[in-house]
Amino acid sequence: MAICKIFDPYPKSSREEFFDNYEVLDNLEKLLEGKFWPLIIGPKRTGKTSILKIVGKELNGIYIDATGIKSLKGLADNLISSLTYRVQLDLKVLKVEVTKRPVKGLQSLLGKLGDTVVLIDEVQNIISPWFISFLSNAYNNSEVRFAFSGSMIGLSKTLTGKGKGKFKGRPIVQIETTPFSEEVGKEFLRYGSRECGVKISEGEIEDAVETYRGIQGWLTYYGNFRSLGYPHDKAKDMVSQIASNIIEGEVESLGEIQKLIVKALTMVEEIRWKDLKNLAESVGKREISDWSFNHALMQLVDARLVKVVNDGSKKYSLIDPMYKYIIQRKGW
Ligand SMILES: Nc1ncnc2c1ncn2[C@@H]1O[C@H](COP(=O)(O)OP(=O)(O)OP(=O)(O)O)[C@@H](O)[C@H]1O
Ligand SMILES: [Mg+2]
């Protein structure tokens, strides 16, 4: 049985498979056309990779996943191996050049690429002095344009020059991805249900949208299980199973105070700074200095795990509802 395209759990690579978010795609393409470098930031599972892949395909660009890249040479190897279809370049010569002298080799590679778009996903993995100087070099000496995405801590500050990094004054424009609104989430499931020829009742759609609060990834997994023939409750159980593994890994990568804050946030809908601090302290059975608490909280906000709502007074809440569900169920 072929997987129904709109509910395909892999990142999407064409517009037809991508629901509703055309505005983001058009915006990204417009910015790139104007020689701005877009940086897509957003909560996990809200379509960042899909956006880069679709735009990459439409602009005949080069998509690179930076997960696992550790050095300039690693980046160069990755770039070269995604060039195999650009036959006009002598890849063997480039490879030798890059191996011998990565900085020079990459410079010459960028020069040869000409007016090309390079899209780097999970860019937080390679934020480092060598990468920043590579970008500065590309900016000053080549026609290559870049788009980035990432969801982790510190990334946007370094790239936009607010942090300690050196990449100041470059044309980086931040674009946010957000979960679907309640209405768009429902439309997505209705559309998928028609496209995939699977009956999902209005009650089930409402329940799924409420459970996943518009997070595209969970809705897609749910829709995929439905299109494979699983009934509503079973499909939800299976999404929870997947979410449980993924979220466990994500929570493990947090710092100790961040974990306490996340745990405290699973106990409430939304909460003010002072109350959250008290709650995190009582969860951890320890005092936390204002500075350490605030620093950890801001990192969670930067990572788009925590949302700040300002309706007269600032309140904090978790973005992904599955965090609450999984953490409470596991009794962490
Ligand atoms: N607008 C959309 N229409 C259809 N499917 C979508 C849409 N946005 C995301 N998806 C689906 O949601 C899942 C997550 O998307 P994707 O991997 O692109 O997000 P991401 O933000 O890169 O996630 P991560 O933070 O985990 O890297 C995938 O299964 C993808 O196919
Ligand atoms: Mg991704």
Describe the structure in your own words.
The protein has 332 residues and is of the alpha/beta class. It folds into 3 domains: 21-176, Rossmann fold (3-Layer(aba) Sandwich); 182-250, Orthogonal Bundle (Helicase, Ruva Protein, domain 3), CATH 1.10.8; 254-330, Winged helix-like DNA-binding domain superfamily/Winged helix DNA-binding domain (Arc Repressor Mutant, subunit A, Orthogonal Bundle), CATH 1.10.10.10. Helix content is 53%, strand content 12%. It has 15 helices and 8 strands. It has helices at 22-33, 48-58, 72-81, 91-100, 102-113, 129-141, 155-159, 182-195, 202-212, 216-227, 232-252, 256-265, 273-284, 290-302, 321-330; strands at 37-41, 62-65, 117-121, 145-150, 172-176, 271-272, 306-311, 313-318. The strands form 2 sheets. A 5-stranded parallel beta sheet has the order 2-3-4-1-5. The chain has a 3-stranded antiparallel beta sheet with strand order 6-8-7. Strand 7 (306-311) and strand 8 form a beta hairpin. Helix 3 packs parallel to helix 5 (102-113), helix 4 (91-100) packs antiparallel against helix 5 and helix 5 (102-113) packs parallel to helix 6. The model has no long low-confidence stretch (mean pLDDT 89). Residues 48-49, 121 line the site of magnesium ion. Adenosine-5'-triphosphate binds next to helix 2 and helix 10.
